[in-house]
């Protein structure tokens, strides 16, 4: 009976660790939005598509994608402010601090619910941009 108890405890411990690890990752996709890579993000950036950074103030001030509008998710990210950055029928790229950050997925979900039609979910976010050797502001 003791062996069974240890086995069940071990399985529950592993299950808890797995759920905790998965809880840290942002979703791979967001319904109504298009998930993009750093290469596609660069293409959109080069075309002048607006980028919205939903990271914290300190991360944005440290460095960000050039020309990005900062709308911190738990601060000023709302429909009127997003409308100042992008029209509902135009493209917009939303990013945060990479796959371990859920801010951009939450922001994309909100943007889609507000009627934005061409939302791009840059899941890799700023870390993927920087890892691709793309320009940052400040460098």
Give the overall silhouette.
globular
Could you tell me the CATH topology label. Answer: Oxidized Rhodanese, domain 1
Give me the secondary-structure category. alpha/beta
How far apart are the termini? 62 Å
What does the average pLDDT come to?
A: 89
Please write the string of helix (H) and strand (E) elements: HEHEHEHEHEH
Number of domains: 1
Q: Could you write a compact summary of the structure shown?
A:
This protein has 139 residues and is α/β, with parallel strands linked by helices. The protein has helices at residues 2-24, 38-46, 57-62, 79-85, 103-113, 125-131, and strands at 33-35, 51-53, 69-70, 91-95, 118-122.
Plain-language structure description:
The chain starts with a helix and ends in an 8-residue tail after the last helix. Strand 4 (91-95), helix 5 and strand 5 (118-122) form a beta-alpha-beta unit. It has a single domain, classed as 3-Layer(aba) Sandwich (Oxidized Rhodanese, domain 1), CATH 3.40.250.10. The chain contains 6 helices and 5 strands. It is α/β, with parallel strands linked by helices and 139 residues long. The chain has helices at residues 2-24, 38-46, 57-62, 79-85, 103-113, 125-131, and strands at residues 33-35, 51-53, 69-70, 91-95, 118-122. 45% of the residues lie in helices and 13% in strands. A 5-stranded parallel sheet has the order 1-5-4-2-3, with helices on both faces.
